[in-house]
User: Fold these one by one.
Assistant:
Number 1:
Amino acid sequence: MNVQKTSTGKMNGKELITVGIFSAIYFAINLVFMVAGGIHPIIWLMMPAFIALCTGVPYMLLCAKVPKTGAITLMGLITGLIYFATGTFTIVILLTFLAACIIAEIIRKATGYKSTVGNLFSYVVFSVGMIGSPLPIWLFRNDFLTQIREQGMGEHYVQVLDGLATGKMLVIMILLTIICAFVGSGLSKIMFRKHFEKAGMV
Amino acid sequence: MLKLDPRTCLILLVIANVVIFIQNSAVIEIVWIGLLLVLLCICGAARSAAKLAGVFAGCMILQYIIFPIAPKAIVSIFFIFISYARKAMPCLIVGTLIMKTVSVRELTAALLKWKVPYSFIISLSVSIRYFPAIKEEIGYIRDAMKLRNIKFADKFECMIVPIMMSAAATSDELSAAAVTRGIENPCEKTSIIDIKYGIADYICIAAGILFTVLAVVIR
Amino acid sequence: MIEIKDTSFDYVKGQNTLDHVNINIGKGECVLLCGESGCGKTTVTKLINGLIPHFEENGELRGKVTVAGLDTAKAELYQLSCHVGSVFQNPKSQFFHTDAESEIVFGLENSGTDPAIIRQRLDDTVRELGISSMLGRSVFSMSGGEKQMLAFASVYAMGADIFVLDEPTANLDEGAIQLLARLIRKCKTDGKTVVIAEHRLYFLMELIDRAIYMEKGRVVREFTREQFSALTDSERISMGLRTLTKTALIPRIDHGQQNVPKGLEVRGLSFRYGKQKVFTGLDLNAGYGEIIGIIGKNGAGKSTLSRCLCGLIKESDGEILLDGKRLKDRARRKESFLVMQDVNHQLFSDSVTNECHMSSEDVSEERADHILSLLDLADFKDKHPMALSGGQKQRLAVATAILSGKKILVFDEPSSGLDYRRMESVSSMLKKIAADDRIIIVVSHDYELLNNICDRCFCVTGEKDQ
């Protein structure tokens, strides 16, 4: 009896449980920044970037432990669903997260699950999915503008809102997230070399 | 005390989201939030309802009374924040309803009824069960770090590495316990939690749909 | 019921984890698998519950194992799970739900049993095992013993005829062990087959029908219960087995002296979380070079006391002095170290040597080498700490404490889950570091260990007991 670990087929019970545990860790790190985002709106806007910086390790470990289709989508779905069900998020995050996960999954599949570059790019895409959290600011833009006018707060605030929720800002946010995802994945590579591989864990 | 079907709560959550995205009238918003708060009260979470009502009132006061007279520098920072908090209110209320009245097992039973794949349910319940374990773990690691004068630069590494190591070990042990209790059985799963829609559930969903329609019509 | 025929197994090729094992167990028998750590007894339990070959995918299995008429290599794990119920070593990592009821019915729900029958089985299980107090409680509020009972109940509910227990008491205290013994007795009277791999033996002596002694992956001897309990102490020790009879505590229970000029003194120490008192008015003292024991029931506050001694939490009342000088919590952190029960939480570096240098900035190469060889770690200098064995990790944690110049070393259950030889080597390590002029405090419910190492013990009685 010598069953080789294969990258095909459905996830077995052990892999599902592994996904569950790593999703919990991913969510926990996520939550730390979410709470921090409550301190100042700018932190909130930068949140996807911070998260991308810090969750590289659980993401890459999950990729290494469960080289199968669906692992990442499942993690994204769990995270999105918990946020959604606790009412802390709008439905937007579920959608952006799901979209990002599916693309990330396709990248993993196309690169054969074990490729460093493939996993790196899938992580970048996955991280960008987090922009679903502050994205409603842009989606609500018109609503906010009407509110400002209704309240009679003057043109100054319209400009403030314009300054924050512009397309330019959105691009900056996405770019920053991508850069941080690269750095986060680099960090995880260091951890792999230094610890996980040496300890015989992966 | 009213007990809603967990599925109703999830449906309400979706409706709450839809309503806030399409509504454009303060009256609709306030009535909708008011009704949800009443629902939260009837379901036995009056305290949380009062808190959330306070937060909502606070947002309104800030927006309509304080902001117009407050210094511009402060307002510009918090304006979006408060507006967003106000928008997120309906979701927060239904979310609180779920957290206060729906247990994990009811949630999984609801998902099972909806024919959500069992593999998803397994991962989800393991995830939820693992949160308290992470908290415990972090407590131990922090204790250990306090006794070891760890340099500030090393702190992230010292925290994440043991957490990952123990996550890997736990997933092995938990899986062994799971497969010996038949988690891989391909048969149709059952649940002892009996969930059924009642009159209250239909009323809630109907009210939700009504508000969705009103939100489209009244602008 | 269980037939293991000429079976060998390797996790890694050529390792001979199991070497031509033959075991036959009849229906209704209660069989003990014993032997030193690494003798293969856990591997045998995995043959029975099918984790080998289905879960350990990289090993190599030869031979044939038949359990309840099923060939384990050919049957699926979920088919076996209807006949074989397994309880594992670690109470923390065997449950899936956060409440007791869901946990008990987990297996039945997995096998698609009719909800009406599941409810019936749930009621029966709760009644027959006498665990109604667990219902409605969060699993996270339960002690290790209760968690193990719950794990047991959940396989009991599935109606298995064979129970496989792999070191179920490794993390349990005396009270919990007795509860578990009660459950095993219940299974036995119901005519179930029980296979138990254990290091702690005394609580099983009246329960087992047979004992199988293993060494290096082979079955070396089989005993009937009478033969097994007739083993003399010297025979037992030469086999590396823990005591067969319940051990009494030899060290005297002390109450602490006042105004000692040298060493540690604790005066009237109290601790409470908010209004919840954990312990009050505790006195104790310990000199340099001395090892003292701390005993007390589960939940009496032993862990809280050790955390308090090390300065991880602030005392509510009373004082802690070292050499006659009062130390506040922050100062205590500099003088003391806690070796945790799960030492995995306190090793951070990427090699044994670096772990040593991390403990303090001015650790010289020679000093580190000296301490490492004192603790038998010199051969593993370049290994990753997590690649070490449990005992080695424990010694490495001790090395870091010594190198950072800490005087007070607190050990939380240093002998949990250890066989006789490893317990002995922990004893000799503790004596060795005490002789290096340190104050050693050992929190334990293992009387065999305490009898070995200390003359005085202090008893923590929690507020709940008084």
Note: Chain B touches chain A through 66 residues (CB under 8 Å).
Number 2:
Amino acid sequence: MKLKVYRGTALMSESALLDLPSGLAAFFMDLHEPRVPAVAVASGPCVYVYKNLRPYFKFTLPGLEVNALEQDLWQQAREGQIDPVTLKEMLESIRKKVDVPLSVRSLHFLSLETEDMDDFLQLHKQQPIRRQTVITCIGTLKKSTADDDGVSCLVIGTESCHVYVLDPEAFLILSKMTLPAPPTMMDVTGQFDVEYRITVACRNGNIYVLRRESDKPKYCIELSSHPVGLVRVGKNVVVGCSDESLQSFTQKGKKLWKAVLPAPVTTMASMDLPARGFQAVLLGLANCEVQLYRDKNLLSTIKTPDVVTSICFGRYGREDGTLVMTTRKGGLMVKILKRTATFEDRDSAPGPPLAQSVRLNVPKKTKLYVDQTLRERENGAAMHGAFQMDLSRLRLAAAKAYVKALESSLAPMSASLTEPLKMNAVVQGLGPSFKLTLNVQNTAACRPVMNLAVSFLYDESLYRMRSPYMRIPLLVPGLIYPVETFVECTSDKGVSDIIKVFVLHEGKSSPLLTAHINMPVSEGLTLN
Amino acid sequence: MGLFDRLAGWLGLKKEVNVLCLGLDNSGKTTIINQLKPSNAQAQDIVPTIGFSIEKFKTSSLSFTVFDMSGQGRYRNLWEHYYKEGQAIIFVIDSADKLRMVVAKEELDTLLNHSDIKHRRIPILFFANKMDVRDALSSVKVSQLLCLENIKDKPWHICATDALKGEGLQEGVDWLQDQIKTMRT
């Protein structure tokens, strides 16, 4: 256990500590020139103050009230009126029923084996018994000016649920406040002589706000999970919780926002750059990252080689924006903020995209539109019914036509399984003589089709055909067979008609497929 | 050097050169410039420069006008306004400040990448200052930390100096003078 002081990149001094430290604070304790700050180290019930790298002063918190019965018992033991076994029994009974707890010495005595009791009693019975509390957290509070080098008071939180404010010069207790639970962390703002706020996170998972001239907390913030870090940003409190969240509250306890973190919080600190008017919160996370949040927006992430256990941002040597971090394995890292660094808000909160708020140039509503909308609103059900009925009718008509086409093989596609055929027709020429080409294809996978014929049906007063009936050769699957014939238009009145083409199977009267050819108007003149 | 220049030299009319003196705060810029001035014009107390100050001194053939810029963080954005006028740069480094060597490198990189400097073949003289301090880095180490070997398109030179005693300054100024002369001819 050592107190180490670094300067630049080198260790400057080391002093051994007597007990495990629970907190550390640097402060100015007097106005003497040159201004030398002091370092206060809290351990056990004492605050050790170091100045000029040497121990300077030790302050011990006042002892707590001792149980009168316990005191009597030890008095009797000292005078030899009771033996250790009786003392133990009596102490046990006090421990169980009385509300003032036993001293550390009595508790230690109770934990001993019978043979060791006598030695312990002989060793300790001459000293009076005392009950001491333990410091859990420490902070500083400016005395009367807000200057950077103003004199500061020490603020101490103890296991006995008290918060003390100490005078920096005489180390008198200026103020004593009581909390409902032992404090674990605190953040102090303001000046002792003017007005101040002590925000304390307690072991019962609540945060209390203490004010001047009140020895009880004024406001209480109840958290859903235990606080791990506590920082004040402006008038709000930002808390890192053990459920991997970062929450912000007003000092009256109203919740402002909550951000979900990628890993559990290990430590928190505020990042304050008054020259730029920048305030943010630094969070050390268990996944070896340090994240910087302004409000609930993540601004920056620093990857670290190890889990960061404590963070401090401020002036180090001549650099104002320095971030000092310690890691779990005992490393010390220093990062300096670039002069040209900019912090841009990346709003990570899922919400409507920016484009959504751009106003569209919607034209004004016309009277027709309004009337139509009104009509639709009033007769909505009827209109829907009429539409659905028409749609059903349309579907029925389509289905009927399809069935009819299938039944009479009117389509140019044959659906029969034994002779699947496809046909299209092409008419070439200007007239009066046209060339008619039928492309017939067998669409079966491997089976050829035989014994097919083509027959034409037409108005004989209009057209004359060279061969109105033709046989089709064997159709090999996949190949397209062109079947050609010539049609002559006998009319010169500029009319046209439909020629129907049937593909037939020999020995069957119903066609396999049918095609209707819309003949073009004959534009040429017959040479008679 | 033409005949006229030599004549001007005899007559005491020396060529004027504008030099920028840059570097972090507390690196010793003002102390160095103070040492280069004639002994009767030297100031006794050196205080942190605010904004900048203009100093003049002469060498055997040139008359230097030095813009001694303040190195404090809040004044460093003034530097770039003087890049255009500067015909040479003196960059001072506190060799004993290992922690802020990264800051010096950052400022040097910003300087070298500035549009007024980037495409000019402007000589840069580095003073690795405060060699008298016990834990000071050597000039070789300083040039490694600042990655000076990456400066390919500009003549540069690094000198280990102790501005309080004035050691090493003359060597650097001589180099600078030679560079400016070769640049002109």
Note: The mean pLDDT of chain A is 86.
